[in-house]
Amino acid sequence: AQSVTQLDSHVSVSEGTPVLLRCNYSSSYSPSLFWYVQHPNKGLQLLLKYTSAATLVKGINGFEAEFKKSETSFHLTKPSAHMSDAAEYFCVVRSWSGRRALTFGSGTRLQVQP
Amino acid sequence: NAGVTQTPKFRVLKTGQSMTLLCAQDMNHEYMYWYRQDPGMGLRLIHYSVGEGTTAKGEVPDGYNVSRLKKQNFLLGLESAAPSQTSVYFCASRAAGDSYEQYFGPGTRLTVT
What are the E-state strand segments in B1-113? Predict the structure, then answer.
């Protein structure tokens, strides 16, 4: 079975400082991993995805994530937080079951302080 | 190109009432999904469809039914609503193939009193 664990339910940073949102995964097969963002009262938007190509994946809005197989991690980073980054972030792994669906982490709420 | 749309956006039901949530996509996607989102639990898969006329159960299917009579539409029904079904419901779709990237609708906020 596949699963993801988001290690922090809330992260608070100051504007202009780095962002680190942590995610560990468990997968029986070579995983496909994603980060989605959800702004308040909005749907989910894909930030970036890893599908066994380059281990450092660049996404939209300056975010990137590094796939580390030895650590079973897929942490999301951004060098400098912006107020508009305040949102909920979900780490997601592809399911290899017949559902052909995605399994979501519980989410990390990012606050950005002025 | 509207992407994935959901109707209604908000709804309040009394316990025991029924309703249908409609999801529509204009991207000609094969696969469609219904999720529910509850605080601290991420999104959980209710039902899904891998093509027109097919449906299957997800993680939390009890109390819900679905139909996919047309490729572009995926309906989620609650026959007898319960307070435990108070949630935000998201529909998603994706193309066939290995990408697995799903496109989400804006959500329906349902309250059952």
Answer: 4-7, 10-13, 19-25, 31-37, 43-49, 56-57, 65-67, 73-78, 87-94, 103-104, 108-112
